[in-house]
Amino acid sequence: MFTRIRGQQRAVELLQRALRDDRTAHSYLFHGPQGVGKVTAALALGMAHNCLAPKLRRPCGECNSCRKFITFNHPDLLYIFPTPNLSITPEREIKDKALAEQYEAYLENRRKHPWREFLFTSRTGIRLDMIRMLQHHVIRTPLEGRFKVYIIEDAETMGRQAANAFLKTLEEPPADTRIILTTTRPHLLLQTILSRCQKVPFQPLTRQIIETELIENRSLENIEAKTYARIAGGNMEKALRLVEEGHIEARQLAIEFVEILIAQDDNEFLDFLERSHQGKVHAVYDELLTYLAVWLADVGLYKDDPDQIANIDKTHLFDHFYAHRVDADELISDLLDTLDGLRRRLRGNVNPRLVLTRVYHILGEAFGFSR
């Protein structure tokens, strides 16, 4: 299971050494960016504590105990994650049928497609009833394994009441208990919780790691893998979602936009607006602006670090930027900030056509394409 965790060698070695020496902590805090393997590592650590294989092979991922962990069905595993107000009982009963179905759907998504986003129908968080459920189970002896394992995903979403109640359990956990919290924002947790956990940092994944995964295990071409890896920003889950949702179409729109930008063909730009105005308009334009940010980043890399360019099949277009502005690379930082601000406006109630038209004129003037 640990072998599935890419790019986190230091964290994995720390956990494996603790397992090998029988010196694992009662409570851990795995902190780092989204989509870099924190929950997978938490599950692997929990599996290892109850794995039936010889010590040096734990977790094997194959024994009966490991298989139950992988499917979140082990009786000594409690997996807590942000949900709507479920009013869940200590025995894990959810009386509202619709919410119970959503809860199970989340778990099924986590089992089969953990990189996919799952959206509940109302605001989510880790609530007091979930912590009371944990407290109900923590005083019991393990049912099948040697240890009870509690994984709390996105622990920073605990409300004040839930956090204070959880702190009582964290102060004196039973010896047969392992608690693992994951978070992208450790600063939002109570200091008293932070002080009682052994902290394990997780790092953003390099583009090379994501590219390798996409090429070797997702059968992508080199250019597509480079593009997705750049956009993902170190987040493997995001890269896999991009692949699954077929976002390469947005890249083609971005290429077309850049070609029109260089030519400064206003009539063609208006036609482009009409053709791209389909389906979920805001989503289409949001993707387009994301890819345009990748293009701008490539322009900045073109002169001094061309090996890092994502759009390696379109380098001839970059020549046009430098033909009009020899210092094109010096404009990129400010333009990326501007583009990010326009993307935020797009996510509000601003007309998407107006936003894209603004981008067209700003970039045209900045690089000297405007006539």
Summarize the structure.
The chain is 53% helix and 7% strand. It has helices spanning 9-20, 38-50, 64-70, 97-112, 128-138, 160-171, 191-194, 207-218, 222-232, 236-244, 248-263, 266-276, 281-302, 315-324, 332-346, 352-366, and strands at 27-31, 77-80, 148-152, 177-183, 198-201.
Give a description of the structure.
It is a single chain. With 371 residues, the protein is an alpha/beta fold. It folds into 2 domains: 200 residues, 3-Layer(aba) Sandwich (Rossmann fold), CATH 3.40.50.300; 120 residues, Zinc Finger, Delta Prime, domain 3 (Up-down Bundle). The chain is 53% helix and 7% strand. It has 16 helices and 5 strands. The longest helix has 22 residues. The radius of gyration is 24 Å and the shape is elongated. The mean pLDDT is 90.
Features:
single chain, 371 residues, alpha/beta, Rossmann fold, Zinc Finger, Delta Prime, domain 3, 2 domains, 5-stranded parallel sheet, 16 helices, 5 strands, elongated
- What structural class do the secondary elements suggest? alpha/beta
Mean pLDDT: 90
Number of domains: 2
Give the CATH superfamily of the largest domain. Answer: P-loop containing nucleotide triphosphate hydrolases
Tally of separate helices: 16
Taking all Cα atoms into account, the compactness measure Rg is: 24 Å
- Helix and strand run: HEHHEHHEHEHEHHHHHHHHH
Shape: elongated
What is the CATH class designation of the largest domain? Alpha Beta
- Largest sheet, spatial ordering of strands: 2-3-4-1-5
Task: Enumerate the spans where pLDDT stays under 50 for 5 or more consecutive residues.
Answer: none
How much helix is in the residues?
40-55%
Give a count of the beta strands, DSSP E runs of length 2 or more.
5
Sketch the major β-sheet.
5 strands, parallel
Q: What name does the CATH topology of the largest domain carry?
A: Rossmann fold
User: Can you tell me the CATH architecture of the largest domain?
Assistant: 3-Layer(aba) Sandwich
- The end-to-end distance, rounded to whole angstroms, is 58 Å
Strand content: 5-15%
